[in-house]
Amino acid sequence: MNVPVLHPDLTPAQRDCLDALPLTGNHVVSGPPGSGKSLLAAHRAVHLALTGRPTLLLSRSNLLRQLLHGTLQGLTVPGAPVEAATVHGWVLRRFGRDAARTEDGWFDWTALIHRAAATFGGDDPATPHLVVDEGQDLPPEFYRLIRLAAASVTVFADECQRLTETNSTLAEITGALGRATGRAGIAGNHRNTREIASLAEHFRTGGSAPEMPFRSGTLPVIRRYSGNQDLADDIAGMAARQPRHRVGVIVNSLRTAADLMRRLERAGLAHEPQLYSSAAPAGRYRDLDLARPGVVLVHRASAKGLDFDTVVIADTETDADTDPTAASLRMAYYVMITRARERLVLGWQGSRLPRHLEGLRGWAVMR
Description:
This is DNA helicase. By secondary structure, the protein is an alpha/beta fold.
């Protein structure tokens, strides 16, 4: 059994934020990339579990759920277990496999709200505390639902990282949870180097400028590749030069990911490459070991909440026809860039540099 270790590796600001949150009521905690929201979400869930109620740490992404599960393993307190689950999995558990859905396949939140309201008001000790990580990627209706279905709700979010079509601003989350919802913030960037964070700022939309990291490193690289083999060779070289590091390859095309996976499997890497596919029901393409070194290939839709020593944004040319000022594009690159701890490469193929990468000299090296 693990012993209760509730504050390992937290900064004073992170500890203060965590300790200031009451164990009752609903709360929304905001912070920029690298501020430690996911780590704080895990700690918060452990704190709430000590009250004796069931506690769930929810995320929309299954890959983030796997990462949170690993974090919780080092924080578990005997007699106060916490489970990491996806929102999809929790809804099916709470409302059954016949939970109402809309035509697009997502849940019918209005119907579920009516079901939850029918049993609201009791003091059932089985009613769980819910902690939500990356909460900006869920719709306001979801928060109206869990307000009725949870003993308390704590949401960690950053509205500058909204990548899904069904997303919420911090104001919408707070409004859906009720007027008494507490608000807290956590500042700082403990993940990126100053150079990576500065490039990310070029793509940030909205919100106040976050604090720049003190740690410095090399400039990000914008590199043209002649083809996927050239790209795979470069990725393999990065992995070979830093065998203990994690290299995250973020793609916009699953076809590109599959092709790179085949090439990397033939490259004789020290650690077998991993590919995540949300379409896989189980197995090697669904259940990853995100703690071990080596190459991990993920679609950009699954990159939220992750971090890697090196990040390669592999196919930026797929955005060449998109308006470079579009908020959705800028937000996507803000998220992808801030996944990198030490090194960042933005790769492209073709005869012309994608428009959204123009004008970045000074923030990145062109190769």
